[in-house]
Structure formats: structure tokens, C-alpha cells
Here is the input.
Amino acid sequence: MNTTANADAMTAILRQISLDWNRTISYGRSYIAIFFAYVPGFTCLMAATGSTLDSVAGAAIGGAASGFLMLNITLFSYEQMNNHHWMNGIVPINRNHQILGRFAFLIVCDLVAGLEVAVSIACAGIIMHEPVKVTDAIGFAAMTVLTLVLLNAIVQPFLYRFSPYRAMAAIILSIGVIGGTVIGLCKALPELEKTVKQLAEAISRHQAIALAAFLIIDVLALAFSRKISLHIYGSKDI
Here is the structure.
């Protein structure tokens, strides 16, 4: 009985992944090409114009994170603009499976983003004549994936609760408030700013431990996000 139920659940999740993939490629090849071209192109341009490797790495991670985060928002926008939201709940029927399928699809995209960042930084290193260590490239890729997973986990309940545009406004406002609060506290409390710098240095020295802690945070965030998303989406009429 459990085996059959698990098989049905897996089939339902795979259907949702397939549905999201079809939604993504429906925008055309040029839309897909942007995700695979703009980060390597931008980082190589930075490398060719004299930027440092650290700044190139930061730009690559930030560019991939913002671009692939927009993919999540685009999926919800597609449902709204093309009146395809009626399919939710029919394919794959169970709303829980739909949410899990969406998370699974996004995690696969996050892994692609991590690979893209690693390749981009490696290419930039060649241009700058500063070969990048394999361990460093893996570290940058892992940071990209973990950052994207956390961001998607945070924004998912917003996207199920509000329209994509209102969700974006709420997310931007939240980031602004949190960022402004942190900056204000650091300015007002020099001890806090010193602590933040020390924490950043500790993370750079113990990268493996930091990534492991980040992974635990991601798992908890995904579980919490799924619970909230299911509560919000489950109360809506399809």
C-alpha cells in the first residue's frame, strides 16, 4: 500500500516538474539563452576590464541568484497571465505534490545555476591569468545553490499568497527593511559591525563548516516554507 502511494506521489511530482519545464521553454529559446549567456558574458567582461577575482565571483553569484530567482516568479506570472492556474490541482491533482514538484524543479535549476557560476569563474580566471582552484570553484557553486534554495524558500509563500507583482513588491520591501535595519544597527553599534566582520572572516576560514551549516538552514527553511505554502494554497479555490 505504501509502495503504491509513494509511486503515485513520485509520478505526481514528476508531472509537476514536466509542467513547469514546459512553461519555462514556452517563452522561446532566447529566454532560455539569457540564463546561460548573461552570467558568463558579464563575468568574462569584468575579467577583461581589470576586475579582481573576488569581485568577479561576487558578481557571478549575484547575477545567477537574481536571474534564477526571477524564474520562480516567472512561473507564477505565467499561470496568472495565461489563465493556466486552473490546471493547478488537476496536474498533479494533489496540491502538496504541486508544491513539492515546484520546489524540486527549482532545486534542479539552482544546481544548474551553481554549475554556471563555477564555469563562469573558471573562464574569468583564465582571462585574468589567475587559475581558479577546483575547490574554490566548487565552493562558489555550492554557495550559489544554497543561496538560491534559501531565497526560493523565503519567497514561495509570498508567491502563493499574493499575485506575482504584489509578491515582488512585498519581497523588495522586506529586503529593504531588513537591509536598512542591519546597516543602521551596524552604524549605531560599532561592536555589532566588528562582530559581523569577525563572523565573515570565520566563515571564509572554515568554509566547509559554513556550507554545512548553510545546508541545515536550507533544509529547515524548505520544510517551513512548504508548510506555510500548503496552508496558504490549500485554503484557495482553484
In short: The first helix runs from residue 2 to 25. The radius of gyration is 20 Å. Residues 75 and 97 are 16 Å apart (CA to CA). The helical segments are 2-25, 29-48, 53-81, 95-127, 134-161, 164-188, 190-205, 207-234.
